[in-house]
Amino acid sequence: MHLLENIKEAFRSIHSNLLRTILTALIVSIGIMSLVGILTAIDAIKYSLNQTFASLGANSFEIKAKGYTNRVRRGGVQGKTYPAITYLQAKQYKAQIGEEGQVGISAFISGATEVKSNGLKTNPNMSVVAGDENYLQIQNYNLSRGRAFSSIELENGTNVAIVGKEITDKLFPNQSPVDKYIYLLGRRFQVVGELEKSGSTMGGGGADRMVLIPLETGNQMPRQRALTYDVKTATLQPENLTYLTGMATGVMRAVRHDQLGQEDSFDVERSDSLAGKLDSLSGNLRMGGGLVGFITLLGASIALMNIMMVSVTERTREIGIRKALGATSRQIRQQFLIEAIVICVLGGLLGILLGVTMGNSISLLIGEGAFLVPWFWMTMGLTICIAVGLASGYYPASKAAGLDPIESLRYE
């Protein structure tokens, strides 16, 4: 009961000196706000950049067959030529990866195609690509109108297409291409969607000059040579990319029947250098942000200790009365410690709220990102508040506990 009574007494003391309590709590809240705010901003910015890097392929890798020989080795022995990845191998790989990653399979059909509709035609430089249900997301292509391919269209190889902006402008000026028909490579396709304008990519036109058809439809198209399939695997968690790459290598070796001890018959091309640099940079930023927050908190703890010392001086007579009525030094010490901790926790809660808001606001100003609630930093901030309260309040509490009751009663 003595501890409970000390807690009640600490709250009564805080209430009786409300202005001083508010000012002291504000000092602590500023320190916590700077710490939590900086760390939250770093995490939010990193999340936003990770999403951007993922859209640029930083969190993905491609698997391609080694389409070259090792040339002439020593002794005049010709290097081994590896066959291309077949459609069956790509499907088996995708099935075995499962939920570990997002696999997109595509095939390049034609790069010099003329698209026609209603007596109009495009330049003969349109590309035709066949892709599966994950192609648009992995390539970061967005639809401005219409829809993506349905599962039935993908399975049955229906003659449907998604076209780029340049094709729409040529064949369907000032109107929607959705549900219209286009002709290419000797077939008629119904347009079900239109890609957002992407702009030229090194003069190639990018998605603006592309016609996307279902992968199964591409397999049914007449051709003079076998299709070459591109297999791209992506993950939304950059830290899992190394593990996923190793897993993918093992799966593809099994699918391709690479013998034990034989080199890989394929290449894995990763593009995660940006993500690696981001992790290193964010670690340095956290250290710098933590140092700034620590310095601010150090100043807040010194200010809190000073205010607690003033409080002990002001309440010297009160301490003498409490000791005269039977209060022990331990109870006096507990009262002042609890008071310091409560002030720090109140200031810390306000600082955490302001820090989370400030951190997410900074990330939104820099770029688009999700609103993050950093539970780890919030918990750490609250723990630091209690530690600051103990550190700042211990000396004033010990000084109060060590006062002589007779001398305290004489204090004016």
Automatic annotation (TrEMBL):
Domain ABC3 transporter permease C-terminal per the UniProt entry, residue ranges: 291-405
Signal peptide positions on this chain: none
Keyword NAD attached: no
Domain MacB-like periplasmic core: 21-223
Keyword Cell membrane: yes
Record-annotated membrane-spanning stretches: 21-42, 291-313, 336-355, 375-395
Membrane topology annotation: Multi-pass membrane protein
Record's subcellular location: Cell membrane
A molecular-function term among this protein's GO annotations: transmembrane transporter activity
Keywords: Cell membrane, Membrane, Transmembrane, Transmembrane helix
Coiled-coil ranges from the UniProt annotation: none
Pfam families: FtsX (PF02687), MacB_PCD (PF12704)
Annotated Gene Ontology cellular component terms: plasma membrane
Record-stated family: Belongs to the ABC-4 integral membrane protein family.
PANTHER family named in the record: ABC TRANSPORTER PERMEASE YTRF, MEMBRANE COMPONENT OF TRANSPORTER-RELATED
Protein name: FtsX-like permease family protein
